[in-house]
Amino acid sequence: MSEDTAALHDSRGERIAALVERRWAIICVLILAVFVAVAAFAGIHQATMPQARVETVSPTRLHLGGEFVETDLGSAVEPDGSVTVRAIGQEYSFTPQCMVVPTGTLVTFRAASPDVIHGFLIEGTNINTMLVPGFVSTISARFDKPGDHLMPCQEFCGVGHEGMWAKVKVIDRVDFLKMAETKPRLTCVE
Ligand code: CUA
Questions:
Q1: Do 132 and 113 touch, CB atoms closer than 8 A?
Q2: Chain centroid, CA 11 distance in Å
């Protein structure tokens, strides 16, 4: 190879490298543009927003007072007709083990953890959040049909993680309200 041909090869190589670099830069910018568009769509059309507020709770005092004492756990009917379910997730179980909720009603779950991070996921629904010690996790949903949903802990929390799960039982609203007449807190724990 003469010196001239070598120089020609070098400049061609440079040009190809520059072309490939530029192509990749364009692809990266396009990917970013897609992310921005997806975030904007989710925010504007699906009202997906970052958490607007943060509620804290002392993880070491959950059982001593406040809304997470054992007698307050379970489902309660609110004055506006909605239902609040209070629950605790700790190594390696949820309390209550079986949560009962009515159909066609706004249900708000309020849950906390006294030890480590656990997952709060209800199969077949969009409910999927984390229980972080020190914070109250709040998530709302509406259940259309009666049925059972499994609620496995989906954050690795220790050796007993795989055995940590609960159940959410959706029952007819009329039956639920009948049960709620006699008890301030409902569960389906047998
Ligand atoms: Cu609790 Cu995994």
A1: yes
A2: 54
The amino acid present at 127, given as its one-letter code, is I
Atom number, ligand 1, closest to the C-alpha of residue 153: 2
- Whether the bond between 92 and the residue before it is cis, its omega within 30 degrees of 0, is yes
* CA angle 49–51–56, rounded 5-degree value: 175
- pTM for the predicted model, two decimal places: 0.75
pLDDT for residue 1 is more than 70? no
Mean of the per-residue pLDDT values for the chain? 92
Ranges 6-20, 79-93, 118-132, 168-182: which has the least confidence: 6-20
Q: Which residues line ligand 1 (CB under 6 A)?
A: 89, 118-119, 153, 155-157, 161, 164
Nearest to 76 by CA among 176, 166, 155, 150: 176
